[in-house]
Amino acid sequence: MQTNRELFDHVMVPNYNPSEVIPVKGKGSRVWDQKGDEYIDFAGGIAVNCLGHCHPALVNALKDQGEKIWHLSNVMTNEPALRLAKKMTDATFADKVYFANSGAEANEAALKLARRFALDKHSEDKTQIIAFNKGFHGRTFFTVTVGGQAAYSDGFGPKPADIAHCDYNDLAAFEALISDNTCAVMMEPLQGEGGIICPDLEFVKAVRALCDKHHALLIFDEVQTGVGRTGDLYAYQGLGVTPDILTTAKALGGGFPIGAMITTTDIAQHLKIGTHGSTYGGNPLACAVAEAAFDTVNTPEVLDNVKRKEQLFRDGLQAINDKFNVFSEVRGKGLLLGAVLNNDYTGRARDFLVASTNNGLMALVAGTNVVRFTPSLVISDEDIKAGLARFELAVADVVNG
After folding, report:
1. Which Gene3D superfamilies match (predicted)?
2. What proportion of the chain, given as a percentage, has pLDDT over 70?
3. What is the domain extent for residue 374?
4. How many domains are contained in the chain?
């Protein structure tokens, strides 16, 4: 059997349109495909591979747990889940953890908890959820409706009700929307899929204050920003604004599927026995790998280096732009960065993505106008420089047609 791109069209549902490249091996921030061609990875599996490929700590955790016990279901608990939960609560505002398999599932749990909390503590009228245009919170029907991109939620029939949106960083619009009937506000503390948009600090602080005023829960979706991506363990810590509920996934497992919702004891008690669950959520294998990833990232050395590496990226992208004049700005924080195309290249982010692949670099887009970079948090300075050199070749290819 030939496992090539053509086989995808024969056997896979056509909701994706993957590249012709099929990677078969990775080490650190380098990846090799079926043909033996090498790529530098600035994509990180969409901000997932926080320690690159085949990091020894993750490989050892997987092998070690793989020879003990893989799965139990939530009829019992397990040691890796308890250890990981303790470490997460020790390192954050939270007291309690719920484990799932993905960011969407963590967000689904957060939204259900917020509705249940409002029903138990306030009234059956307190159901409104406010989120932000261009936000992204997952692909379940609830989370995709809360996400502020109608293109992802239209075309599937009636949507979950009482969900409202306004523009990110538009405080006046938000203040006009929130009321005593609002049960929760869900936001990314840095919009990822929507274009790498940082929040105004005053906006975030005002959202927190208005949530308090109206007894609404503030949910931070840190699926993309969490576990070191911005240079803090979680982005809320760098903003100095604490949510009531936080969701985390992607980098949490370093490439192994796991997600989590974390919150306080007071809020958590409203997910009583039987109100929510997950067959695989918190399984020993995922939690063992996630524990190794969490331990490795949650150190001053790694987190401080993320901030230093951000500057290397910014300096390199500035040098490229001085030559070719294709970007209007570089947005983001830490190693969640977006190069925004200027008016001459509007809508052509995918062209830069394809050109990058052709020059041995794995990159991403965030919408049609932003080239996104989410590399390993421990990528070497040498690989950053080498990857930027390949990106310069890609930019030259696009500029020269």
Report:
1. Aspartate Aminotransferase, domain 1, Type I PLP-dependent aspartate aminotransferase-like (Major domain)
2. 100
3. 5-54+300-399
4. 2
SS3 64: helix
Single out the catalytic residue among 126, 250, 309, 333: 250
Residue 300: pLDDT over 90? yes
What are the tokens at 294? 């969490």
Residue 279 marked as a ligand binder: yes
Tens-digit pLDDT profile for residues 302-313: 999 999 999 999
Residue 224 known to bind ligand = yes
The overall longest dimension of the chain from CA atoms, in Å, is 62
Known binding residue 316? Answer is no
What's the length of the chain?
Answer: 401
Active site residue 221: yes
Same domain? 272 vs 326: no
Residue closest to 199 by CA, chosen among 23, 37, 336: 336
Pairing of strands 30-33, 38-41: antiparallel
User: Any binding-site annotation on 36?
Assistant: no
Active site residue 250: yes
Checking if the pLDDT of 148 tops 90, the result is no
Q: Which helix (H) or strand (E) holds 259?
A: strand 259-263
pLDDT at 147: 95
What confidence tens digit (pLDDT) does each residue in 132-145 have?
999 999 999 999 99
Residues 121 and 230 in one domain: yes
Q: Are residues 47 and 69 in the same domain?
A: no
Catalytic residue among 99, 117, 136, 352: 136
Measured CA to CA in angstroms, residue 142 lies from 115, 131, 258, 331, 351 at distances of 12, 12, 19, 29, 32
